[in-house]
Structure formats: structure tokens, C-alpha cells
Amino acid sequence: MEPKELYLSKPWLKFYPEDVKAEVEIPEASVPELLTRTAEKYKKKTALVFYGRKISYGELIEMVDRCAAALAELGVKKGDTVAIYLLNSPQFVISYFGALKAGAKVTPVSPVYTSKEVRHQLEDSEARAIICEDMLYANVERAGTKLDHIIISNLGDFLPLLKRAFAKKMLSKAYQGLKPPTAEEIKRLGLHVFKELISGNKGRPPAIQFDPKKDIAALPYTGGTTGLPKAAMLTHHNMAAIYAMGKAWWPFVQEGNETVIAFLPLFHIYGQAVLMLSGLTQGHTLVLFTTPDIEEILDAVDRYQASAFYGVPTLYEYLKEHEKTSRVNWKKLKIVVSGADTLHDSTADGWERRTGIPILEGFGMTECTSISHGNPYNRPKKGSFGVPISGMDAAVIDMDDLSFKPVNQEGELILSGPNVMLGYWKRPDANKETFIEIDGKRWMRTGDLVRMDEEGYFHFFDRKRDLIKHKGYSVFARHVEEVLYMHPQVKAAGVVGVPDPKVGQIIKAYVVLQSEARGKVSEEEIIEFCKQNMAHYKVPGIVEFRGELPKTDVGKVSRRELREEAEEI
């Protein structure tokens, strides 16, 4: 069989469990409609547990409606962008669905972003309003972006009384140098207070007519397949698709009858789509954590009788050695999933020896609303990120001539499905590079090098060379290099990822200093400079000074050679 026909025949289907459908029916509904249907069905059921504070679906949808009404009264209308700069909390959930119900599209901002990174996202997404953690307001102010409305929220508002002092202390430690605005500053600056907006508003949310396939629901930012961070345009249909595809892929996950431990950051597409969106539109209970405290998470798995657990490889690497991991009966859980990075065999083997159950590894991207591949629950294969899930098509092509690659030959992964984004926001050139058409079918190029084995399971060969995966985060070498070049004493720089089982990859920077700075500027000074100018997960863990850096034929720094040198050490 010719390679093209092989992929189109979907050889992986023969290994689907009997109760998993190959194709799925996508509901013609907006995200707010999906949540409203669920909330009406499970009004008294607990939707969120936040450090002991329980919120029912009835309470949640009432607050979502009030949030939508308040935003509409502030002038937010269909098509506007609302930024959400919040930690994991009920406020994040309410803001997200509330903004969507008001007809806006949301752009979640990482809570660890610096003011420069915040400004880029606010300006690029054309945000009119932002809902931000009060502790993070200073970053918004420093960003200097013109906004119509700034709404601040306090993490403690939804915490039990005894937890509020702890939260304040935790935030002060995490965000040293940042302070929430005082009551006088709130009034003088014309800021809105989230708690007051939703508690005092009795209005009805606006009646928005959605076109699910055209209307954008979210603009999550990603390194994408090429270049610096940009926004993926995810429609309401994309999100309804991932809801339906997830239900089909895991048929044993029962609507209204699961408890999910939700510590993954909700600003990231993994937490946003797999946990929050899919969980709450299926009537699950989410046990929310602001920070991934291992002991509290392990306690919660047992206390709330969790049935689903989603993590990243670095977490499982840590848990397989943690002294208290064994106090959880992991065999009671229906599903334990790993995503956002490659799961090392040593981690998977160590976890299974410790707990007696396998981790189901999957693959996804922001551009496909989180997930495209997963290991069949009855037949996982170690070293593979699985097969295309229900409703998904995948193939491997030559990166140059776009021909389909034979079985077990490496090439670029391409994807097609109802969960694939509309395109990149305001990036026509990137869209031309990313999307191709083959026999009338639209495919998205991922930039990841993989191979498909004879059973239709996919395996990583290598990532797009410049993408570094550090603790589940995607970091582009070019972005780190641009910050390094901002340092007045840096003449040249090259950044690569060094494989490490605990964090995925350590970010290593090779730096050439100006001649007058050699011996005077230290590695620690370079790292400190990076900390001041980029999110913590992008900061190099290793800095090595060089007299010169290897170059390509066209005079560019050769990251390939640097990477090979780093991996040999």
C-alpha cells in the first residue's frame, strides 16, 4: 500500500477499544451554551472545590451570568477581547465563561509574565479589558497598554476564612516587589473590583447569537510551529469538538460522575481545555489548586476520591520518588494521563513499579485545542504518544517535498480535524507556512518530527529544533536570545535545550561577551538579567561563556552544533 493510502486508511483504528467510536458528532453549540446545559442538569452538584470551599453548578452559572452582565454593562460587546491574568481560582473560571457569554473572546495571560510580556499580549490581542489578580496589577500598570477597563480580583475572596492569611503570605512570597493597589488607589485609578461587580449585579447576560465555526472563543498564545509567541484562533466549534472528542475517546468517563484534580495552570491550553472546559461541560467536580503543592495534591486525591489525574512528565518523575506517593491507591483512578512534554521511559517505568498502573501518554498542541493523540486505554504502548483520537486524522510527510513518508520513517507530523485552529491571529505569513491542502483536505503542519509504526502508533523522533520543553512549558530559543542581546555586554548568544529527566530540558545559553567585559561579567549576572526581563521558566539554567560561536553557511549561530556539543557532555 502506498504511504498516502496507508495514512488515509487509518491503521490505528484496529487498536481502538470496542467502545470507542472512530468518528464523533460535534454539537452545534457555543461554549456558554454547553456550560449552561450542564449547569441546569447538575444544579446541586459540586462544580469546584477550592481549598475546602465548594461551589455548586447552580452557584457557578449564576456568577457566570452576573459576570457576563457586568462586562456587557461596561461596554464589552461581541468580538471584543478580554484578557484574563489570574491564578487558578474560581475567579478564573467565572471570568472565562462570563466573558464568552458576553460575546467576547478571551486571551489568558500567564501569571508569571513580566510587564513586557504582558504588554505584547495585550497589544497584539487588542484587549479592551483585563481581569487581573490584584497582586499582579503593578505589571499591568507598567505594561502601559491602553485599556478601557481594568478589573482586579483578590484570591482570598473565594477562600475559606482560615486560608486567606496563608494565601496572602504565599502570594507575597511568590510575587516579591509587587503589591495590590490600596482602596484609595482603586478609587483614584478607576479600577473595578471583581467581587463587587458580580455580587452587586442583578442584570441578565446579553443574548448573543453565535456562529460557532466562525466566532473566536479564545486567543491562547503559543510559540506555535514557527517564530515568536502568537495567538491561535480557537473557535467555539473547536472547543465543542474537543469536548465531544474527549467524551468519545474515554467512554468510561461518566458525565456528572467524576472528580478531577486540577492543579495544571488554566492559562495553559492543557489545563484550560482538558480540565476546565471538558470537565465543567461534562458535569465533573474540579478540585482546584493555585499552586502544585505535592502533599496537598496527594491528600486531595484520597480525600475527594479522585477518578482522573492529569499531569506532566516532570511531576511524575518527582512523584515516583516521593515518600507519600504510596499512600494513594492509584488503582482506584480511572485515568492517569501525561501530556505537554515527552514522557521518558525511566519515568514511566518507575511510576508503574511504584503505583501498579501505567501512565497514558498523549500529544497535543494549543493549535489543536489541546489534544490530537492518546494511548488507547486498553493497549498503551511505552515510548509512543499514542494514536489519533476519535475524529482526528494524522500523517507523516517529508518536510521539503511534502510527500507522505513510509511506515517507521521520520518526517513532519501533520494534523486535520474539527479541533484544529482557524489560524494564527494577525499572522497571514505564518498561516501560509502552517496550513497545506492535499486533495482538497486542509492539514496543519506541526513542525514536530515523528514516525508512525506499523500499528499506527506515533513516536517522537525530535521536536522542531528550536523549541525547548522545560517543565512542561514551551520555550523558543530565539525569544531567550533576544533578551540576552538586550544586555549591553553581550556580543553573541545561542540557546539550546539539554535533555534532563527531571525537567524535560534545561535551558543552556552560550554567550560571547564584548571584549571589555570578559572576566568582569559573571554567569550569575547574566541569569539575573534574564530573570528581570522574562518569565521564570524561560530563564537559562546554565550559562557558558565562549570566545566565539559556531556559524552556519549564511553566518547565523548554529544551534544544531551547540546542541550536539551540549548533549555530548
The whole-number mean of residue pLDDT values reads: 92
* SS-derived structural category: alpha/beta
How are the strands of the biggest sheet laid out side by side?
2-1-12-11-13-14-15-16-17
Point out poorly predicted stretches: none
Q: Overall 3D geometry?
A: globular
Oligomer: single chain
Helix content: 25-40%
What's the Cα radius of gyration? 23 Å
> What is the straight-line distance between the termini?
43 Å
User: How many distinct beta strands?
Assistant: 28
Sketch the major β-sheet: 9 strands, mixed
Q: Please report which band the strand proportion falls in: under 5%, 5-15%, 15-25%, 25-35%, 35-45% or over 45%.
A: 15-25%
Number of helices: 18
Describe the structure.
With 569 residues, this protein is of the alpha/beta class. It is 32% helix and 24% strand. The strands form six sheets. A nine-stranded mixed β-sheet has the order 2-1-12-11-13-14-15-16-17, sandwiched between helices. A five-stranded parallel β-sheet has the order 4-3-5-6-7. α2 (31-41) runs antiparallel to α3 (57-73) and α2 crosses α4 (90-101). The longest helix has 17 residues, at 57-73. The radius of gyration is 23 Å and the shape is globular. The two termini are 43 Å apart.
